[in-house]
């Protein structure tokens, strides 16, 4: 007997296959694809739209306002689900698809799964050139969609209906792979979408996926154990991969058993509760004095699930140059950075296996006490930094007011500008996995769109919790239309719009490198003769949201209470100072390009200061240790206090 088949179009086969995919996590089985975001055009409405209509109950399609924001929402949805579920985005050929480029880059940088089903020009070329087609005179096969090869983990152009039998499993395998996870892009020529093929019915049988856990190599585990057991000042860097692996409990148990301080990356915020005794705070450029003091004093650093980007490493000045780094990571590329001792494998399995070989090792009490004392000092700073009435309206004051009133399972979303640093430094984690600070791509516009995607995910399992978005005026003006999306779809958000009159954090960088304020704040833009403030309250209200202005942190707190009680999206607007009120402590050095030749003495002085700090930069060698002749730890020109004799100080 021949194989049973069913005749379907390419588009119908893609959607039917997605509808049949499930995932099982800790014994719970649910649909792998949570649905999608779509804006229809001539490149996807007639064929893919027809196929989606027949599955609208099981694969809900959310109508987007902008393709870029649809991609941000899909990324935030995947992040909420710890990369175990994904959404698709469908866009028309031409500018609709082009708008997804930024979102694909964000998902790629953050290692997040997202499936893009995008229209393409006709494979036959019979009607060429078609509306919105880019023509390359010497390469007719090259088109706009080829640009996505740089920002996709998996890329394919479907040129025949049978191709999806190979392509779809490969795309899903990529999106679910802990090491290769990222966006998948399928270019769908308009004619091929409607072509039919006799597919084997077995291709559409329900399939249950499980996330693969790779056990680390025994020799790499042995090397890591030997290095850690010899450590006098060990520290753990907890990255986002801890949560993706489901390794939070394993990390906590490992740290507690061996009394090793833990410091968190931006992606790893909310790996531990704020009040855990071994949580020493966030590390790096947007970190805390406590974590950075411990990072620079450490002789062995166990990095778990971090890609060690420059904001974590202080452009590789955050650690002593002779410190040993052990990098436990599912991705080989990340595990070997800067001559780290690699442990390639799953974070949970790796921690369990390293722990099994530690033979009762505990870090010296003087070291752990030192770390905890540093954290107490930092906690006191944050308390004062976020206290209402302590200085002008600022990001920290707004963060503190919200933090004091939010629920333990409320989810916080922030992205570009000054807010990622301020949230990372000042937010006090109330529950595991409740902070989404997008800083892999540091992408303006993610905030509200990402909040919408996070809320869609959150409402599936935690409908009584809230999604709280911190957004600056610059990001709001860049992308705000998903306020309307959230109201239309009844996915409530609480949005804090903190208006400092322009791009204030880049103005601060401009000033800190000796430059005059120029073209960042509205008041300093030479082509704006008469600057004025946007009425964000009226604008948000026009999209159906509750919207109010708060003039003080106390008023913001009252407005936040009302927003918690409301049944739809609320927007709270507060002006904050562009120059004063920033978190001034906790920053490591960060490398930025500065002019080597200038007539401006302030710029020249700033350049020399930047270059003087370069001596701290780790180059992967066993150079001089990270302390000065007085035996004091340093960071960004400040010292963290005398080194106890047991730490090996001269």
TrEMBL record:
Domain Thiamine pyrophosphate enzyme central: 221-354
Keywords, in A-Z order: Hydrolase, Thiamine pyrophosphate, Transferase
Name of this chain's protein: 3D-(3,5/4)-trihydroxycyclohexane-1,2-dione acylhydrolase (Decyclizing)
Domain named Thiamine pyrophosphate enzyme N-terminal TPP-binding: residues: 37-132
Pfam families, per the entry: TPP_enzyme_C (PF02775), TPP_enzyme_M (PF00205), TPP_enzyme_N (PF02776)
Biased composition (Basic and acidic residues): 611-631
Superkingdom of origin organism: Bacteria
Family according to the record: Belongs to the TPP enzyme family.
E.C. numbers: 3.7.1.22
InterPro entries given in the database record: DHS-like_NAD/FAD-binding_dom, Myo_inos_IolD, THDP-binding, Thiamin_PyroP_enz_cen_dom, Thiamin_PyroP_enz_TPP-bd_dom, TPP-bd_CS, TPP_enz, TPP_enzyme_TPP-bd
GO molecular-function term, one example from the UniProt record: 3D-(3,5/4)-trihydroxycyclohexane-1,2-dione hydrolase activity
Name of encoding gene: iolD
Domain Thiamine pyrophosphate enzyme TPP-binding, chain residue ranges per copy: 437-573
Tagged with keyword Hydrolase: yes
Region annotation Disordered: where it falls in the sequence: 611-650
């Amino acid at each position: 007997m021949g194989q049973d088949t069913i005749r379907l179009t390419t588009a119908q086969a893609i959607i039917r296959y997605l509808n049949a995919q499930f995932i099982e996590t800790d014994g719970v089985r649910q649909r792998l694809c949570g649905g999608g975001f779509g804006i229809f055009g001539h490149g996807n409405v007639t064929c893919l739209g027809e196929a989606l209509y027949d599955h609208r109950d099981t694969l809900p399609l959310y109508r987007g306002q902008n393709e870029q924001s649809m991609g941000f929402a899909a990324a935030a949805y995947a992040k909420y689900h710890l990369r175990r579920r994904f959404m698709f985005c469908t866009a028309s050929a031409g500018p609709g698809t082009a708008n997804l480029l930024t979102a694909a880059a964000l998902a790629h940088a953050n290692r997040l799964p997202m499936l893009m089903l995008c229209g393409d020009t006709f494979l036959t070329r019979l009607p060429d050139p078609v509306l919105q087609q880019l023509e390359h005179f010497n390469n007719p096969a090259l088109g706009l969609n080829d640009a996505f090869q740089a920002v996709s983990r998996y890329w394919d152009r479907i040129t025949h209906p049978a191709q999806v039998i190979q392509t779809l499993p490969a795309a899903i395998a990529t999106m679910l792979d802990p090491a290769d996870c990222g966006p998948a892009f399928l270019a769908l020529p308009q004619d091929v979408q409607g072509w039919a093929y006799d597919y084997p019915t077995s291709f559409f049988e329900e399939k249950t996926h499980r996330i693969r856990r790779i056990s680390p190599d025994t020799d790499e585990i042995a090397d890591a154990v030997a290095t850690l057991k010899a450590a006098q000042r060990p520290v753990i860097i907890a990255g986002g991969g801890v949560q993706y692996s489901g390794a939070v409990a394993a990390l906590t148990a490992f740290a507690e058993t061996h009394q090793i301080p833990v410091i968190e990356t931006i992606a790893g915020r909310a790996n531990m509760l704020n009040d855990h005794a071994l949580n020493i705070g966030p590390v790096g450029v947007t970190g805390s004095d406590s974590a950075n003091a411990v990072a620079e004093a450490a002789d062995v650093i166990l990095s778990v699930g971090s890609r060690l980007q420059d904001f974590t490493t202080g452009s590789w000045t955050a650690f002593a140059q002779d410190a040993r780094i052990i990098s436990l990571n599912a991705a080989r590329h990340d595990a070997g950075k800067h001559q780290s001792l690699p442990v390639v494998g799953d974070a949970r399995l790796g921690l369990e296996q390293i722990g099994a070989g530690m033979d009762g090792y505990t870090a010296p009490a003087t070291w752990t006490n030192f770390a905890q004392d540093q954290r107490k000092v930092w906690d006191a700073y944050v308390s004062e930094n976020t206290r209402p009435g302590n200085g002008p309206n600022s990001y920290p004051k707004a963060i503190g007011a919200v933090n004091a009133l939010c629920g333990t399972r409320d989810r916080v979303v922030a992205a570009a500008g000054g807010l990622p640093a301020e949230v990372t430094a000042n937010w006090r984690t109330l529950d595991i996995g409740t902070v989404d600070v997008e800083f892999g791509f540091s992408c303006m516009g993610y905030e509200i769109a990402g909040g919408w995607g996070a809320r869609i995910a959150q409402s599936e399992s935690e409908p009584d919790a809230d999604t709280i978005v911190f957004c600056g005026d610059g990001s709001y003006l860049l992308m705000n239309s998903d306020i309307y999306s959230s109201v239309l779809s009844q996915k409530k958000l609480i949005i804090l719009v903190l208006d400092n009159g322009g791009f204030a954090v880049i103005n601060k960088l401009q000033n800190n490198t000796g430059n005059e304020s120029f073209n960042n704040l509205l008041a300093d833009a030479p082509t704006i003769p008469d600057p004025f403030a946007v009425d964000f309250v009226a604008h948000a209200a026009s999209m159906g949201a509750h919207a109010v202005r708060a003039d003080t942190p106390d008023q913001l707190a009252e407005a936040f209470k009302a927003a918690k009680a409301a049944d739809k999206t609320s927007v709270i607007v507060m002006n904050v100072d562009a120059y004063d009120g920033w978190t001034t402590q906790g920053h490591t050095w960060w490398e930025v390009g500065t002019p080597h030749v200038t007539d401006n003495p302030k710029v020249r002085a700033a350049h020399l200061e930047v270059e003087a700090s370069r001596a701290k930069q780790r180059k992967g060698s066993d150079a001089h240790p990270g302390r000065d002749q007085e035996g004091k730890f340093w960071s960004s020109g400040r010292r963290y206090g005398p080194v106890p004799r047991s730490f090996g100080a001269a």
